[in-house]
Every structure is written in structure tokens, then in C-alpha cells.
Amino acid sequence: SSSSVFVVRKDQDIYVQTLRKLFNESHGIFIGLQRSEEEFAGKSRKTQLVQVSKNYRSVIRACMEDMHQAAVSARDPALHSQYSTQVSILSAMELIWNLCEILFVEAAVAGPLLLRLLDWVRLHVCDVDNMVREVLSSENPSKHELFWNVVDVFVLQGRMDEARHLLSKEASANPTSVHMCRILDDLMKKMPVPSLGNTQTLTEMELKWQHWHEECQRYLQDRTFASNSHMESICKILLGDENAILEKKDLMTTWYHFLVTRLLYSHPTVKPMELRFYAQACMDLFLGGESSPEPLDIILMAAFEFEMHQVIKECSIALSNWWFVAHLTDLLDHCKLLQSHNLYFGSNMREFLLLEYASGLFSHHSLWQQGVDYFDHCPEYGRVYLELHIERIPLNTEQKALKVLRICEQRQMHEQVRSICKIMAMKALRNNRLGSALSWSIRAKDAAFATLISDRFLKDYCEKGCFSDLDLIDNLGPSMLLSDRLTFLGKYREFHRLYGEKRFSEAAKLLLMLMTAHIAPCSFWMTLLTDALPLLEQKEVIFSAEQTYELMRCLEDLTAGKSDKQKFQDDDVETMKVEMLRLALARNLARVIVKEGTLEGS
Amino acid sequence: QVSVINTVDTSHEDMIHDAQMDYYGTRLATCSSDRSVKIFDVRNGGQILIADLRGHEGPVWQVAWAHPMYGNILASCSYDRKVIIWKEENGTWEKTYEYTGHDSSVNSVCWAPHDYGLILACGSSDGAISLLSYTGDGQWEVKKISNAHTIGCNAVSWAPAVVPGSLIEQPSGQKPNYIKRFASGGCDNLVKIWKEEDGQWKEEQKLEAHSDWVRDVAWAPSIGLPTSTIASCSQDGRVFIWTCDDASGNSWSPKLLHKFTDVVWHVSWSITANILAVSGGDNKVTLWKESVDGLWACISDVNKGQGGVSAVTEGQQNEQ
């Protein structure tokens, strides 16, 4: 309808309650990483960074768990669907991050590289878990129709011990296959794998592998497994036969699983830089022209090609939030992996992404505080971004205002401090909270506003005869000097206090000084003189002769200063006041002359 | 992706010409051909009518919120040649000042950076631009730039406050020497930049690129770079991004953001100037961002409503 206004907002994950843990915990990891000193060089530093990477991943997984629980318990199908989608996205994020950790952060070398990739695949191919469980928990696993599928799964994932365990069950259940099982078991047992420690060199391993490979070859050629198609196929897999492996497509479900399996059985000592060739070939073979690569495939491929910037770019496009790319890029930057080629506006990639992420946090009523920390760690534009964003935080409560203020003060953001204090002062004034308004304008060092509010206080006093917010005025201290009017207010209140404490001569002195030192505005002199009346009428003489003369002079200045017109407008009350004052002053003068003229003791 | 999170039914009886969020995104001011200005509380996805301000005698074209440090103040301008400044006092909104110094429709109002004080620029179809400065005690001082644009001025937008040599901290209490500038767009197809020199406003630059009336100009917030950026949009369907690299403000060069199929009415910058919102007669609001290689790309499309989208504004926070 034409009378509607639409309020739109960017879809951001920060509004998803269940992701809150992700933001909170990763914030902690981020800060820890920024503060971690680079005291360790080389290997220790790398270990440290790998640990940070693992921490991030465990946060993602924890969030995935929560999300999964939420999905399971959601009764509303739309909500269930939303949570399930979220789980898939988190799973993809963890998959990508894990691969980046292996290739970039840990920078696994040939040998360990394969082992890491195997772990990676095992962790992420869950589609077969149910099947595995079903077979293993059945009475006679080897009789289960899916038995060989499960054996295949173990072989494809390089889980030799588990495969051998199942084979033994087959051997005991089926006497005819005992001989074959034993041989296959032996081959599996003997299969050389790269070691993590320095127990063998790559060359040694390759040599052993070559011999083993030849042995497998012999058994195949001798048709040892000819009577059991399953075992023959396994033997082919062990030999890295592409077609044999591809036949098990459904058990692998993804091209990257296919890739790792192929590498395991054809080139276990693959070097990082060789990955790209295998990856591309495997993806093409696996997808086989039936389907085209999805965004996730493109990202993983970019990782295998070691195109870090491409990974970041593709992730930025595919994901609906900056969280992932901001934190991952920051980590990669700490690994000193990102070339610092300057982007168009001079900032680098890491900062660009962190700025985007943190800016997004500022539209959230509490996550903005995390945003502050992220801006702090953006050396080029962090500060100005913070200045621009922090001014827009609604200062609904005094507490929030103080929180924002503290942040600004800690960072010497003086303009923002002044601005916030002025805003709060104005707000307080609008709500007639004079004390609060005064407090804020003092904090803002806003002399003009302080004067305005002091005038209000004084006006209120004249009308009501008493002060509000005495605590505040009594404890102004040096901030009293911010404005003349404020000083007057403070001193005037002090006068009242002295009078209340019956410290009459001090009060008298102060009162006089307020006029003679021109601290009091002329408009207030009449009030001050009227305040002097009770002091003049005390039994004891308070004002000295000199002081009395001064007072008289003040009164005369005041009345003389009035134009004829003003004198005409003065009502009876005014005239009477003046008369009373003159009388009181004269009487005081008389008494004090006598007093001062009298010698002590006489 | 961008989604609608709130639909405010304003109950305006005629076309809405402007909708502006306040500084914090908690209040929304709207104005319409029905001559009224309305203010809504839009926190937490709600919509509570706070005020229905009557005072204009013709369609109201624009509204503008002043900086909160001056209180809750809203300016509006109308076909009735008037500029009205409204203020919230003791919980109620009232007219606090009315300016009638223009000879025809006032099309645009824009508050200056708060650092300069409370100053409002107004652009009118009589070709003049007025600058109203609050001097205290309910008094406003007026400066007028006559014949700023022949035929008429459609838009005004202030440059962010930047102090020359701002890296040096000014001793507190001392007012820094700001160089005040603002941009205007007119029916002469031009974007002009005005600079205050010795208390007088002078035309500093003339930016030519549009082939029809300039409908809106928006000076981007500063992120501390020596460059200045202005967005302009026009009846000719084009949106240009003007940048000036040197601090002296001498050479401005335009970059075409996009040519739309219909008139573009409004352009508006995000807080850190990295996103530009564009709205126009083609019924869409699009968001544009400068990519790392300097090209502008459309990052989002919000297709809503019948009839042209006439205004777009950026607020920040939403309460949960």
C-alpha cells in the first residue's frame, strides 16, 4: 500500500540466537590470538597457530551440536528446516576450515599430508555411519547384506584395522574364504603408511610401498581372489585402480573423498604442490559431467590449488556472513601467508574483512561491544570506523551511556566523549533532571550548557526557596570553575551551608565577595542582599563597618543602575525591600561603629 | 540478502516523499503530500505514532533530524515555501521556528555537521539556498545564496566536518577552524560545491555530467582519507560517484555507478560510506558497494511496493 514504509535490514546471522555462542567464543579466541606474542619462532609458533585453528574449529563443532539439538527438538517444520540448513552450513564451514588448517596453517608436508587428509575425510563423511553401525551391531555381521559395503568403506577410508577385524569375522563364518581372507588381511597389515615421526624417510617409505604394491599385483594376477568378487575388488582398490575405486562412488559420496582414497592407494607420498593436479582430475572424474561443481566444491578446489585469496573470495560470496572469512583470514595473516598487496583503498584483505564483520556487529544491541575489540585490531581504519559507529549506539540507559563513554575515554576519543555527554545532558534537561544534566555537562566540559543549567537551578531556587540536587552542588570541587554561573551556584550554595552551620561571619564574607568579585550576576544581587538581611538582624554584629559600607555601595549601585522606567515598574514589594535593606544596613553600621570604637574590656 | 523486518503503516493519506531514521534508528520521521509530518517509535519492530505534525500548507518534500546533542529536533520543507523546525519539549512535539524566506517550493533540507553548531541548509525552486543558524534563545540567523541554481535547487548535502591539520589535537575549549562546505544539485543539471570564506558562501566547484535535473546529492562520510566523495542522481537515470583526491578540492572526477531505466530520486550513504543506497522510479532500492578493484557492484536488491520508491535512509541499531 502506498502509505507503508518498509524497514529493511541485511540478513545477518548475528540475529540467530543459537549462533550466539559462536560469536562469543570466537571473539575470545580472536583476542587471544592478537595478544599472543610472537616470542616463539618457527615450529613453536606454528604449533601455537595450529592450536588456535583447532580452537576455532571446536567452537564451530560445538555450535553445530547445539544447532543439531535444536533441529531435532523443533516441532515447527519451518524452524526445523532452518536449523538443519544452519547445521549444513556450519558443517561446510568446518570442512573448509579444517582443510585450510592442514594445507596452510600446519602446512603439512608430503607424508603427514596424506594422514591429515585421511583424518579429514573420516571426520566429514558421515553418510555411511548408520550403515556401519547397523552391520557391526548385528548378530552375524558377515551375513548382513551390507557387510561388504562396510568393509569397502573401511578400505576406502584407509581404516585397515577395522577392515581386518571384519575380514576375520568373514573368515570364521565362511571356511571357503579363509585362505583369501588371510592373504588379504596380510596385505592390509603390511601396507606401508607415511609416519608422523622421523622413523623413516620418504624415499624409504616409497621403496617399501613399491614392493608392497608389486606383491598386491602378483596376487591379483594369480587370480587369488577370483572366486570372491568383493575381495578381488578390494585388492584392486589397494592397487589404486581408478575404476575399482570409482565403482564405490556411493560409499564415498564426495569427489574429495575419492581424491584422498586415490592418493592413499596410488601416491601416498604426495607433495602439497601436486595436490592440485590430482584434485582437478578427481573432481572431473567423480562428477563425470553429470553435475557441475557447487560453491563448496569450488572453494575446496581453490584450497587444493593453494589459492588462498580465491578461497577467501569464494567463501565471502557463498556465505551470508563475514564471520568465517574474517576469522580465517586473520589467522592466515598471522601465519604470514597473505601477501600484503594493497587493496584499492589502501587497506589489506585482513583488515577489510574484519571491518566488515565488526561493522555488522554494531547493529546488534549487545554484540557491538565485541565489535569494539575487532576495530581495535584494525590499525588503519579501525579507529575511524569505531568513531563513526559508536556515535550511533542508542543511549537508552545511563548504564549504557557510561559503558560507551568508558570505551571512548579508554581510547582518547575526546570528540565522542564530549558528544555523548552533551547528548545525555540534553536528555536529562528535557526530562527536568537538572542534577543529572549538570553532571553530564561538567563531564562534557560544556561551559555554555553548564551555565544554562546553573541558571535553571538558580531560577528554581528563587521560585521554591530551596535547592535540588544538593549533593551534586556541594561536591562540585574544581569543576565549579567550568563556567562563571556554575561557580556562582556552587559558592552560593556554600553560603547557605555556612549560614546553616551558623558560621555567620564566614557566610557574610562569602556573600559580600560574591558581589564585589562580580561572581554573582547582577540579576541576582537583589536576592543576595535580601539574603544578607537575617545576618544584619542577628543579635551579634556580623558585618564589619567596612563590609557594611561595601554592602551599602552594592545596594546603591543596584538601584542607581535601574532606569527610571524600571523604577516606575517596581512594585511596592520591591520598594519595600530596598527600604528595609537601607534601614538594616544603617542600623548595622551604627552598632558596628560603636562596637569597633569600644576598647576591649571596657 | 536484505529482508523487510518491519512494515510501518503510516496512514498517510497521500504519497510519502521522505522517510528518515533518527541517529539511532529508533525513530522514523515521514512526510507526505497530505501535508503532514509523522514521527514513529520503531524500536523492536514496532510502530507507535509519537506525533502527527501539522503546519505545512502543501506537500512536504523532506525531513531531516538534527544531531541528538541539540535535543530532539526535526526540520521539514514543503511546496508551501516554508521550512519548519520542530522540537520535542516536555514530551510533546511543537513548532519551534518557521522560515518563510523563499519564493517557491523548498525542496531539500540538510543539517550541518554538529561540530558547526545547529545550522540548516535549505534548497528551493526559487533557485536560492538558505542557511539558517541557531544563535540561541530561539533566534535564528539567515544567510541566503541567491541564484545558486537557475530554475531551482533540488538537493543539499553537507560535507563531513574535517579540520585542516586535524591530526594535531586542538587545545580543549578552542574552536577549531573548520572549512564549511556543502554540495547542492539543481535543475540546471549541475552539482555545485559551496565553501564558506570569511563568513560568505562562495561557489567553489561546478560538477557537470548529468543531462537532466539533479534530484539528489549525498556527500559521503569521511573515514579519514584525503579523498572526498559525493554521489549524485538525476532525472536522466544516472548515478555518478564524484571523487576528489587532493585536499584543496580542485579536481573532481565522476565515475558512472549505473544508468537506471527511470529517474533516480535518492541516494544515501551508509555510516562508514562503504555502501550506497539508491532508489528510483524503477520501483527498486539497490545497494551498491565499491569492490576491491575500484568498481561499483550491486550487492542487493530490495524490490517492494507499488509505485516508485522515493526515499531511502540508513539507521543503525535495532533493539532485540
From TrEMBL, chain A:
Functions as a component of the nuclear pore complex (NPC). One of its GO terms (biological process) is protein import into nucleus. GO terms for cellular component: nuclear membrane; nuclear pore outer ring. It comes from the Eukaryota. This is Nuclear pore complex protein Nup85. The lineage of its organism: Eukaryota, Metazoa, Chordata, Craniata, Vertebrata. Belongs to the nucleoporin Nup85 family. It holds the Pfam family Nucleopor_Nup85. It is found in: Nucleus, Nuclear pore complex. Signal peptide: none annotated. One of its GO terms (molecular function) is structural constituent of nuclear pore. PANTHER family: FROUNT PROTEIN-RELATED, NUCLEAR PORE COMPLEX PROTEIN NUP85. Component of the nuclear pore complex (NPC). It comes from Struthio camelus australis. Keywords: Membrane, mRNA transport, Nuclear pore complex, Nucleus, Protein transport, Translocation, Transport.
From TrEMBL, chain B:
InterPro entries: Sec13/Seh1_fam, WD40/YVTN_repeat-like_dom_sf, WD40_repeat_dom_sf, WD40_rpt. Coiled coil: none annotated. It is found in: Lysosome membrane; Nucleus, Nuclear pore complex. It holds the Pfam family WD40. PROSITE patterns: WD_REPEATS_2, WD_REPEATS_REGION. Keywords: Lysosome, mRNA transport, Nuclear pore complex, Nucleus, Protein transport, Repeat, Translocation, Transport, WD repeat. It comes from the Eukaryota. One of its GO terms (cellular component) is nuclear pore outer ring. WD repeats lie at residues 9-50, 53-96, 207-242. At the nuclear pore: component of the Y-shaped Nup107-160 subcomplex of the nuclear pore complex (NPC). The Nup107-160 subcomplex includes NUP160, NUP133, NUP107, NUP98, NUP85, NUP43, NUP37, SEH1 and SEC13. At the COPII coat complex: interacts with SEC31A and SEC31B. Interacts with SEC16A. Interacts with SEC16B. Component of the GATOR2 subcomplex, composed of MIOS, SEC13, SEH1L, WDR24 and WDR59. The GATOR2 complex interacts with CASTOR1 and CASTOR2; the interaction is negatively regulated by arginine. This is Protein SEC13 homolog. The lineage of its organism: Eukaryota, Metazoa, Chordata, Craniata, Vertebrata.
